Amino acid sequence: MPCACNVAKQDGDSWIINGAKNWITHGKSGDVAVVLARTGELLDSNGITAFVVERGTPGFKAGKKENKLGMRCSETAEMIFEDCRIPASNILGKVGDGFKQAMKILDGGRISIAALSLGIAKGAFDASVKYAKERQQFGQPIANFQAIGFKLADMATKIEASELLILQAADLKNRGEKVTRQSAYAKYYASEVAVYVSTEAVQIFGGYGYTKDFPVEKFYRDSKLCTIGEGTSEIQKLVIARELLK
After folding, report:
1. Tell me, what's the pLDDT at 87?
2. Among 203, 78, 196, 50, which residue's Cα sits nearest to residue 128?
3. Residue 230 bears catalytic tag
4. Which residues fall within 8 angstroms of residue 160, CB to CB, at 6 or more apart?
5. Is it the case that residue 3 has pLDDT exceeding 80?
6. Do 157 and 234 lie in a common domain?
7. By residue range, what is the domain housing residue 72?
8. CA quadruple 77, 116, 190, 195: dihedral positive or negative?
9. How many domains does the chain have?
């Protein structure tokens, strides 16, 4: 669980971390945190260092757990550091490498979020197909109506395109090639598709889609985070544009 903190000051063979960070996955229950702390100037990309901090280290504690819209089975919490002393041996890589390390991790992490988005979209789609075949109106399944059939066609096409983008990015990653643009493509498109497909799923279910009796309301709630985590959709477009214009 990477965490960007306020500041770390060197004190002999140790570093003392002070500050706090919100939106940390497993911020209460995780046994180990990778903490990105400022060790140099505020706007210096070489002024951030990664530290490995174990749960139970004096001065390191969990704060507020967020009451989230979706992804509720994955805890998100604040992490607080108050004169938290970390030995220099706990530095990950070299002093000042933290920002570069984080950027490299993001390229792979975005493929993971894209895959998560794809799973949500497929879940919402499969539930929609099953329901559309079973739900009867005017003496026939609603799947027979063009309005529903067209929704399913659009959902399926976007899911297929998402999967191909993800497979392309994952293949490049596995081959050790640069994936900045391809991972941004996959994350941006797949996350937006997850929101689209889950929204259409709720629409297909009608009133039932707005209840907790069926799974699509959960897909709907969970999907939105995919457009935010590991860089928002707006950030993905920024990354793509910069890569295209290099």
Report:
1. 97
2. 203
3. yes
4. none
5. no
6. yes
7. 2-92
8. negative
9. 2
